[in-house]
Specification:
Number of helices: 3
Distance between the termini: 70 Å
Shape: rod-shaped
Radius of gyration: 34 Å
Strand content: under 5%
Helix content: over 70%
Structural class: mainly alpha
Length: about 180
């Protein structure tokens, strides 16, 4: 079942952008403090959707949506219906039909290739954007991890300091050192 049967190239382009924006918004809602991850997810989804759309176009070459129906289709004449010698021309009839089908497929491919290349080009540009965005996101993640490690180390140091103070207070009051308090 082809769910994109009625979708033309313009709508297919719009669907790639819509998928990217929806994914970016979902990640932004999920990770509110990390808009860099939302942008990264949106670019990845746009790239994947663009590649998928290009592959879809190439898998559906015979569709008129890509412009293959603008040129006339080749229909070879039937040589087997020729009087007197038609029965001998039957194999030639099959060869002509095969060549006409090959030419028609080439015309469909020639019409669909620019549409598919638009999607592949968009995916390439998304990859160009993805690399620096990924490096930026990794840098932000590393900085956040360093800050969390520093906060954890500060908390451990503070707990150690509070335990030392508690031990001094216990000694001052006269509690045994191995008591639970």
């Amino acid at each position: 079942m082809d769910i994109f049967a009625g979708v033309g190239s313009d709508w297919l382009k719009a669907l790639t952008w819509i998928a990217a924006l929806v994914c970016g918004a979902a990640v932004l809602l999920w990770r509110r403090r990390r808009p860099d991850l939302a942008a990264l997810a949106a670019v990845v989804v746009f790239m994947a959707a663009s590649v998928g759309a290009g592959i879809y176009v190439l898998n559906h070459l015979g569709d008129g949506r890509w412009g293959g129906d603008r040129e006339a289709r080749l229909n070879p004449p039937s040589l087997s219906e020729t009087p007197m010698v038609g029965q001998f021309l039957g194999p030639l009839d099959g060869a002509l039909n095969g060549m006409a089908d090959g030419v028609n497929e080439f015309v469909d491919f020639r019409a669909a290739l620019p549409v598919a290349l638009e999607f592949f080009t968009a995916a390439g540009w998304a990859l160009v954007v993805l690399v620096p965005l990924g490096l930026f996101s990794a840098t932000v993640g590393a900085a956040r991890a360093r800050r969390r490690d520093a906060e954890a180390a500060a908390a451990v140091a503070e707990v150690a300091q509070l335990r030392a103070e508690l031990e001094r207070v216990k000694r001052h009051i006269g509690y045994p050192a191995d008591d639970i308090i």
